[in-house]
Design brief:
The chain is mostly helical. Helices cover 82% and strands 0% of the residues. The longest helix has 34 residues, at 166-199.
Length: 200
């Protein structure tokens, strides 16, 4: 009985240590904002002004990516100035894990644009985003592993389907990033709500 109680206490301590290592770099509100942006752009492309060609489609989604990056970076910078030393360490750890996949994705996107080979850009973006989340999963709430897997499966599906027509491409991008970022925001919100509950 004593061994069972001791092992349960050790497991509880281990779980608490893991939770304390989760990075506060990611918040639900800016993540939800990126989901809304993806959904709005999909709706705009499908029902108001479908892009005239592949290049127009690519630049619209790249503009959205830059906007989403600015939203998240602004939130992170605001909290960085108010963070403790330990929180800044965890910020840096998570961003270090995310960065390689995102930078490679950006470089490959540039290469695809220069080659005017744009049909598989949605698969490339989705795959690299999923890889980035998977790499940083140690510093994210547990449910984010499901989100990373969702992006990777989405990328695989896009590769299997091949070069989609522009309306289908818009729908795929909006559905993947709208749902993926909304789910991320939900997991982040639940995580920080549970943290607040544990502090009471």
């Amino acid at each position: 009985m004593h061994w069972r109680e001791a092992s349960e206490q050790i497991a509880a301590i281990h779980s608490q240590v893991l939770r304390s290592e989760l990075s506060p770099a990611f918040r639900a509100a800016p993540t939800a904002a990126t989901a809304a942006l993806a959904t709005l752009l999909m709706a705009y492309q499908l029902w108001i002004a479908l892009p005239s060609d592949d290049l127009s489609f690519a630049w619209q989604w790249l503009a959205l990516a830059v906007g989403a990056l600015l939203i998240c970076a602004s939130d992170l910078l605001y909290r960085w100035t108010r963070a403790t030393r330990d929180e800044r360490r965890r910020f840096a750890q998570a961003l270090t894990q995310l960065s390689p996949a995102l930078l490679v994705g950006a470089a490959l996107t540039g290469d695809q644009l220069l080659r005017a080979d744009l049909g598989n850009l949605p698969a490339l973006w989705t795959a690299h985003f999923g890889v980035a989340l998977w790499a940083a999963r140690q510093y994210l709430p547990r449910g984010m592993t499901k989100v990373a897997t969702f992006y990777l499966l989405g990328a695989l599906g896009l590769l299997v389907l091949g070069d989609l027509a522009l309306p289908a491409r818009s729908l795929a991008m909006g559905a993947l990033f709208g749902c993926g970022q909304a789910a991320s925001a939900l997991y982040l919100h639940r995580h920080y709500q549970s943290q607040r509950g544990n502090l009471r």
